[in-house]
Amino acid sequence: MLEPSIDALQEKINSKYTLVTLSARRARQMSETNKVLIDNPKSHKYVGMALEEVQADKLFITEE
């Protein structure tokens, strides 16, 4: 089972497409800078860490 779950993440960001795009961009950024916004991430992969940041309200999208 994946953590955080897709249902929990969709409460934060409605669109699966937006969630995937946001986490992929953040994962690429983390691979270049090695800076993570959360302490002690459970995942060892950048995409997993990005999804954990979404769950922790550290990574979000604003609508204009």
UniProtKB/TrEMBL annotation:
Tell me the Pfam families matching this sequence: RNA_pol_Rpb6
Extract the InterPro entries matched here.
Answer: DNA-dir_RNA_pol_omega, Pol_omega/Rpo6/RPB6, RPB6/omega-like_sf
- EC numbers listed for it are 2.7.7.6
Superkingdom as given in the UniProt entry = Bacteria
Q: Name one GO cellular component term.
A: DNA-directed RNA polymerase complex
Report the Gene3D superfamilies cross-referenced here: 3.90.940.10
Is rRNA-binding among this UniProt entry's keywords? Answer: no
Q: What are this entry's molecular-function GO terms?
A: DNA binding; DNA-directed RNA polymerase activity
Sorted alphabetically, the keyword list is: DNA-directed RNA polymerase, Nucleotidyltransferase, Transcription, Transferase
Broadest EC class? transferase
Reaction(s) the record says it catalyses: RNA(n) + a ribonucleoside 5'-triphosphate = RNA(n+1) + diphosphate
BP-aspect Gene Ontology terms: DNA-templated transcription
Q: What does this protein do?
A: Promotes RNA polymerase assembly. Latches the N- and C-terminal regions of the beta' subunit thereby facilitating its interaction with the beta and alpha subunits.
Q: How does it assemble?
A: The RNAP catalytic core consists of 2 alpha, 1 beta, 1 beta' and 1 omega subunit. When a sigma factor is associated with the core the holoenzyme is formed, which can initiate transcription.
**Similarity remark:** Belongs to the RNA polymerase subunit omega family.
Q: What is this protein called?
A: DNA-directed RNA polymerase subunit omega
Q: Which organism is it from?
A: Oceanobacillus picturae
